[in-house]
């Protein structure tokens, strides 16, 4: 019995062309009831697809029609069903963000890669950091800070000089973005079960926004973050090219 494959693609012409070619060759089933979803695009589109389909409990196999493609497999029209049968599956638990704005509104969102806080004004942000209810850093003066999952540790976290985390490490990376004070603070590694809270100091003078993957909330005064073990994203990779191998390989380039 052949696999029931559901294809989806970003708006990029190269992704749309791939969608048309693969659909003609393998058929295109509805996502609900499919055995696997094949996402055609880049990492950003892959994150969108994982968020959009998280209630379906269907694995997602990405093929790169974007730029970096860290979460994607190489594109080919050939042997797709065989590749899907042979693929390895990784399960990713996202972060849950609860961001409170100046007017008291609370915004909830999930982040597969990271939750980040970034200044939106001309002056540096001032943040206080609490871990499991205990004040750990009374003042971090910076352009921003983020909390990253192992799956997201090679993204914005790595660009901000944070560590790459092995996929099974059960830890999170807390990383500053352009820290001014403490000038030499290198961030922290925290247990996956830790609850991290950022308090925005002088929020009127030094406004800050929060982002969970691509979902943004402006004028935040507090952001609470924890892992969401009840949400599981199933991601498929070609044998020998899974997340663990990619995370190791990324450290030697």
Automatic annotation (TrEMBL):
<dbReference type="InterPro" id="IPR017438">
    <property type="entry name" value="ATP-NAD_kinase_N"/>
</dbReference>
<keyword id="KW-0808">Transferase</keyword>
<dbReference type="Pfam" id="PF20143">
    <property type="entry name" value="NAD_kinase_C"/>
</dbReference>
<keyword id="KW-0067">ATP-binding</keyword>
<feature type="active site" description="Proton acceptor">
    <location>
        <position position="43"/>
    </location>
</feature>
<comment type="function">
    <text>Involved in the regulation of the intracellular balance of NAD and NADP, and is a key enzyme in the biosynthesis of NADP. Catalyzes specifically the phosphorylation on 2'-hydroxyl of the adenosine moiety of NAD to yield NADP.</text>
</comment>
<dbReference type="GO" id="GO:0006741">
    <property type="term" value="P:NADP+ biosynthetic process"/>
</dbReference>
<dbReference type="GO" id="GO:0003951">
    <property type="term" value="F:NAD+ kinase activity"/>
</dbReference>
<dbReference type="InterPro" id="IPR002504">
    <property type="entry name" value="NADK"/>
</dbReference>
<feature type="binding site">
    <location>
        <begin position="43"/>
        <end position="44"/>
    </location>
    <ligand>
        <name>NAD(+)</name>
    </ligand>
</feature>
<keyword id="KW-0418">Kinase</keyword>
<dbReference type="GO" id="GO:0051287">
    <property type="term" value="F:NAD binding"/>
</dbReference>
<keyword id="KW-0520">NAD</keyword>
<dbReference type="InterPro" id="IPR016064">
    <property type="entry name" value="NAD/diacylglycerol_kinase_sf"/>
</dbReference>
<keyword id="KW-0963">Cytoplasm</keyword>
<dbReference type="GO" id="GO:0019674">
    <property type="term" value="P:NAD+ metabolic process"/>
</dbReference>
<keyword id="KW-0547">Nucleotide-binding</keyword>
<dbReference type="InterPro" id="IPR017437">
    <property type="entry name" value="ATP-NAD_kinase_PpnK-typ_C"/>
</dbReference>
<comment type="similarity">
    <text>Belongs to the NAD kinase family.</text>
</comment>
<protein>
    <recommendedName>
        <fullName>NAD kinase</fullName>
        <ecNumber>2.7.1.23</ecNumber>
    </recommendedName>
</protein>
<feature type="binding site">
    <location>
        <begin position="154"/>
        <end position="159"/>
    </location>
    <ligand>
        <name>NAD(+)</name>
    </ligand>
</feature>
<feature type="binding site">
    <location>
        <begin position="113"/>
        <end position="114"/>
    </location>
    <ligand>
        <name>NAD(+)</name>
    </ligand>
</feature>
<dbReference type="Pfam" id="PF01513">
    <property type="entry name" value="NAD_kinase"/>
</dbReference>
<keyword id="KW-0521">NADP</keyword>
<dbReference type="GO" id="GO:0005524">
    <property type="term" value="F:ATP binding"/>
</dbReference>
<feature type="binding site">
    <location>
        <position position="178"/>
    </location>
    <ligand>
        <name>NAD(+)</name>
    </ligand>
</feature>
<feature type="binding site">
    <location>
        <position position="143"/>
    </location>
    <ligand>
        <name>NAD(+)</name>
    </ligand>
</feature>
<feature type="binding site">
    <location>
        <position position="151"/>
    </location>
    <ligand>
        <name>NAD(+)</name>
    </ligand>
</feature>
<dbReference type="GO" id="GO:0046872">
    <property type="term" value="F:metal ion binding"/>
</dbReference>
<dbReference type="GO" id="GO:0005737">
    <property type="term" value="C:cytoplasm"/>
</dbReference>
